[in-house]
Fold this protein.
Amino acid sequence: MSLDIALHYKDIARITLGEYGGKVIDPEDLVQEVCLKIHRLNQGSSPYDPDKATVKHYIHIVARGVWIKKVTRDRGEVNEDYQTHREIYAPSLQADQFEDYLLRQLDFEDVLPRRVFLLLKMGYNQSEISELLSTSVYQVKKNKTLLKRLASDYIAAQ
């Protein structure tokens, strides 16, 4: 299986720009290089494998490799105004990291908490989620409480 660049372009751009875009002179060029690298990997030695990593983690790994190569190859292309750029993109990256943490903490076999989380994220209320998932409001509340506890644990660990 390979990663569909067109489908995941927004993720590629957000992750690359958020993590490394402020560190280089031409951030858009870096995004294009990450897309090219993912395309080459898909055709060759290391295509995306969902059993080994999430899409976001795979993009982070590839983007980091491209950035390191770019910095070591093209010395002097580092952007000195990195902190300002990082402040602009940091909130969306933190949200992605939190979401990844939360989904990793949930039991893989029990899909209800994952579904409740995703529907809450989409803006549904408890009774709507209950109806959509054909479960009781009590079960939705119970899973919402679990999600709140995991969020508290994540915040405490930061």
Notes: The first helix runs from residue 9 to 20. The radius of gyration is 19 Å.
